[in-house]
UniProtKB/TrEMBL annotation:
Transmembrane segments: none annotated. Residues 786-795 have a biased composition (Basic and acidic residues). CDD domains: PTP_paladin (cd14496). SMART domains: PTPlike_phytase. SUPFAM superfamilies: (Phosphotyrosine protein) phosphatases II (SSF52799). Residues 775-795 are annotated as: Disordered. Gene3D superfamilies: Protein tyrosine phosphatase superfamily. This is Paladin isoform X1.
Length: 795
């Protein structure tokens, strides 16, 4: 029986099949009865104690099966989906299948919870966590359920079984199976379970040929110019030593802080890294660990090591692994192992540290293709702040591309902030002319480089150029988040300069535009466009988070961490206090298409009605912190605005009166700032506020008089008068005389305390004493007293 995977020895030689043939492989029906669905296999692989938890749940289910056996019910609905010809009944069966399988999933989780929290549950103290809290602390469990069951219910029907139910266990002369499919089907470890394989992490072509430097055993090694920051793919043990020597560190020399950004479990066998994969998809990452923290992924790697050693005892001290050939074909091989040559990454770096190398290791798990969480930013910040000034920072992920590049950008931002304080700025000696120009973050999609970006903003484009001018700044969300922060423009400019420095393998900013370009190509098949949209949204969120992090570093919230002030607030707390930022981030996930669709004016040929070319150039050239690119100032009033038929006042639109016991007047404005000065005085004159004694409510900013008196117009008139003083139209004495003339018939002399408080609030310190002094004197009666005397009280 040939599966298409050449059988080899650990030396790479293809074996002839032996004569020993047995039939001990599990078939599909047995796997169904045992409940070995893909979502359950992933659960017991990730969840520590998952195998024992499933065994306990299965035992209880069998004991409580007098009315229904949960596993058998799941199998019944699964078979009904395959055999039921009626569409509606098939959908109903699928619904019950998903519901029962999810119930089985949570029962296993609950069994593990009871086992792990047994001591706390038996204690009288109320400090133990409830099941809901326990689940919330393990977001990877919800990730498995969402990815493998809820998003694709039909895919959850697949059970653990060999590719062919008739497959035989063909053994070689040394009593080892000859086929990886057989070995994978018979595996029963907690992590190295059924239908899983160990694949070599290095493959042909993983080294990027455009990089100028090569380090043996450490693909894609590069240094960020001007910073003690380095990036690399997942290295071998010898590759780690080579990188440490390359950065100038020897025994007792320059310290190295190594950050492993991988979320998936990795194991070292004979000094080479291997990663856990599914046998049917050996070249794809298993995306079931989203949200897992450092402790759990390192415990998972420790359990994987135990599974390997246990399986090696069964096969005479060897473990079957797979490699990738030059032509991308997969072949298997036997690796001879013992407890000394099987190591977790944590054990590898501890051994190197024990050898005397000045290396420190940290695991910061980040999902492949995703943006770091706010807690990940805080972890990296604390690690870099705690290191000495001469420390070299090395980052690695699988290929040294996405997550590694993000880590190097974060590290460079932190180094600038820690070494030079606020505001964050690139030192003049470290910035080339090209990088200064490239910091405008307006990279054009039509292939322009960083050096041309600043010039494209400063000069007006021709109509033909404008059709292809969609850049990163044309995404409205990024303009909004930049304007939101006081230091947004400066911090984003520094971020873009850092991104350009770290772009040897990938430019995070340009990646957004590359995926946007694919998404807007109408001739591309829908599946490709959908993938481009999803990946582009992830990169947009990553760039968005980096903008917010650079603004955080540029604020005083970070001062306390680097000894530059007393304020000490984590990035996670800082974000929590800004719900508007969180709302913007969620808008990317909810409706990513609106940020990637090219505006119609950039699609269609340029026409005159699209706007004046000079105005377009001015608007696009704006670079203020609030009045930024694409922003305009619109007049509050507009042609055709509704006006009252009886009361028409220039500068105060739509004034109308409601006839009731107490006269009420309304304006279609939000306050006095939306009415011109002339319009405001005209409204006061029309509604006779200067002749009324009381005003129950207005849209103006009124104040209560001292001693609990009713609201009156003195505060309104004071503000209007003080506005005249501020604008230099009248002096303080004249303004107070004007106010007193209008308030004389209302409440007598204006309260001095109210005047003082109002002056302090309006920050009018000039002539304050003289104004207050004049307020204490009763003014002379104005010339036209008849216009100010109140009408008789109708009550």
């Amino acid at each position: 029986m040939h599966t298409g995977i050449p059988r080899t020895t650990s030396m790479g030689k293809v074996l002839d099949a032996g004569a020993n043939v047995t039939d001990t492989l599990p078939n599909s029906e047995e796997a169904i009865r045992r409940g070995e669905y893909a979502v359950i296999r992933s659960l017991i692989r990730v969840l520590e104690g998952g195998v024992e938890g499933k065994r306990q749940v299965d035992n209880v289910i069998d004991r409580c099966a007098s009315m229904q056996n949960l596993r058998e019910a799941i199998a019944t609905y699964r078979n009904s989906i395959h055999r039921q010809p009626d569409e509606m009944k098939r959908e109903a069966s699928l619904s019950f299948f998903v519901e029962y399988l999810e119930r089985y999933y949570f029962l296993i989780c609950f069994a593990v919870y009871i086992h792990t929290e047994r001591a706390a549950l038996h204690s009288i103290s109320s400090g133990q966590s409830c099941f809901a809290d326990w689940m919330s602390a393990r977001p990877e469990l919800y990730s498995i359920l969402r990815r493998l069951l809820r998003r694709n219910p039909m895919g959850a029907l697949v059970c653990s079984s060999p590719k062919s139910s008739s497959m035989k266990n063909v053994e070689s002369t040394d009593h080892r199976p000859c086929e990886m499919g057989v070995v994978a089907a018979m595996r029963d470890g907690e992590v190295l379970g059924s239908q899983t394989v160990l694949k070599s992490d290095h493959c042909p072509g993983c080294q990027n040929l455009t990089l100028p430097e090569r380090v043996e055993g450490a693909p894609n090694f590069r240094e960020v110019p001007g910073f003690p920051v380095y990036g690399v793919a997942n290295p071998t043990v010898d590759g780690i030593r080579a990188v440490v020597r390359r950065v100038g560190s020897t025994k007792g020399g320059r310290p190295v802080f190594w950050h492993n950004m991988r979320e998936e479990p990795v194991i070292y066998i004979n000094g080479k890294p291997f990663v856990l994969r599914e046998v049917e998809r050996p070249c794809k990452n298993m995306l079931e660990y989203t949200g897992i923290d450092r402790q759990r992924v390192e415990r998972m790697e420790a359990r994987l090591k135990e599974d390997i050693l246990r399986e090696a005892e069964r096969y005479g001290g060897a473990i079957m692994v797979i490699h990738e050939a030059e032509d991308s074909q997969i072949f298997d091989a036997w690796e001879h192992v013992n407890p000394e040559v099987v190591q977790t990454p944590l054990e590898v770096y501890k051994c190197l540290e024990a050898e005397g190398l000045p290396i420190k290791y940290a695991r910061v798990p980040i999902t492949d293709g995703k943006a770091p969480k706010s807690s990940d930013f805080d972890t990296l910040a604390m690690n870099i702040v705690s290191a000495s000034k001469d420390t070299a920072f090395v980052f690695n992920c699988q290929m040294g591309r996405g997550r590694t590049t993000t880590g190097t950008v974060i590290a460079c931002l932190l180094k600038l902030r820690i070494d030079y304080g606020r505001p964050i700025r690139m030192q003049f000696g470290d910035v080339s002319h090209e990088e200064m120009d490239s910091g405008s973050s307006s990279c054009e999609e039509a292939g322009c480089d960083g050096a041309a970006r600043m010039s494209t903003i400063r000069k007006a484009r021709t109509p033909k150029e404008l059709q292809h001018a969609f850049g990163i700044d044309d995404i409205l969300l990024l303009r909004k988040i930049t304007r939101l922060f006081d230091n947004g423009v400066e911090c984003r400019g520094i971020l873009d300069a850092i991104i350009d420095r770290c772009s040897a393998l990938q430019n995070i900013r340009q990646a957004v535009l590359q995926y946007r370009r694919v998404f807007n190509q109408q001739h591309v098949e829908p599946r490709v466009r959908r993938v481009a949209l999803n990946r582009g949204a992830e990169y947009l969120e990553r760039y968005f988070r980096l903008i917010t992090f650079s603004a955080y570093l540029g604020s005083e919230a970070f001062d306390g961490f680097c000894g530059q002030g007393e304020s000490k607030m984590t990035f996670k707390t800082w974000l929590h206090q800004r719900p508007e930022v969180q709302a913007m981030k969620w808008s990317i996930r909810l409706r990513p298409g609106r940020f990637f669709t090219v505006p119609e004016e950039l699609r269609a040929p340029y026409e005159c009605q699209h706007g004046d070319a000079v105005m377009e150039a001015i608007v696009r050239a704006r670079n203020g912190s609030v009045l930024g690119k694409g922003s305009i100032l619109k007049m509050y009033f507009f042609p055709g605005q509704r006006t009252s038929s009886k009361i028409q006042i220039h500068g105060a639109p739509h004034v109308y009166k409601v006839c009731f016991l107490v006269p009420k007047y309304y304006l279609c404005t939000d306050g006095p700032t939306d009415v011109t000065d002339a319009g405001c005085w005209a409204v006061l004159r029309i509604v006779h506020l200067v002749r009324s004694r009381l005003v129950q409510e207005t849209n103006f900013r009124t104040r209560k008089e001292a001693r609990g008196q009713s609201l009156c117009t003195s505060a309104v008139l004071l503000e209007l008068a003080l506005n005249q003083v501020r604008r230099g139209l009248v002096n303080g004495h004249s303004a107070m005389t004007m106010v007193h003339c209008r308030c004389w018939w209302l409440s007598g002399v204006v309260n001095v305390a109210s005047v003082r408080n109002l002056l302090l609030k309006l920050d009018l310190t000039q002539d304050r004493d003289r104004i207050i002094s004049s307020a204490s004197c009763r003014p002379t009666e104005p010339d036209d007293v008849s216009e100010l005397k109140p009408e008789p009280d109708p009550r």
